[in-house]
Model the fold of this input.
Amino acid sequence: MKLYDAPFAPSPRRVRMFLAEKGISVPTETVDIAAGETQTPAFARINPVGELPVLELDDGTRLTESLAICRYFEALHPTPPLMGTSAAERAQLEALALQIMFRIYVPTTQAFRHGHRFWEGRITQVPAYAELARAQVLAEWQRIDGLLADREFLGGAQFSYVDIVAYTTLDFGKPSGIRVLAEQTRLARWQAAIAARPSAKA
Done:
């Protein structure tokens, strides 16, 4: 088994944090996104979509998409449970994870792609789109701050993979000026709690 990884990318980081919480060790192979290695013919044979992470199983099967890879490990190693223990809880956590992915993570990536100098000359940037995406993300984090009014973690009383998805997304927003606002005290409390977990350094 091998995980194709990139140290600074948020999607592989989700998997690394998940594995750290589970106490699972998987060999990794670093792929340099900045150098364009994910866009080479060699990597296209590993993942035609040209994205990380990719989990290669011992029989050669390759799994893609960070949440799908986490689900695979959850099935193999259900303790500690990070994706719920009942049908209702699993569905509720899934809904939260999808909200964060589509309403926060995706526009965060667009704010980065269209507003950061790293992408100059790599893509056609639309700065106005970056600002619209950034405004959407900030509004969503305000909503999450409200959600944390009656719970310790995003899914409730227990840490879950939803916290991993949200934490890595919030960290990824820093290059685009997306940070916890001074008045978002609940979000700041939650962020500090997740940052203090050993898995945050994975």
Q: What stands out?
A: DSSP finds seven helices and four strands in the chain. Strands lie at 2-5, 28-30, 54-56, 62-64.
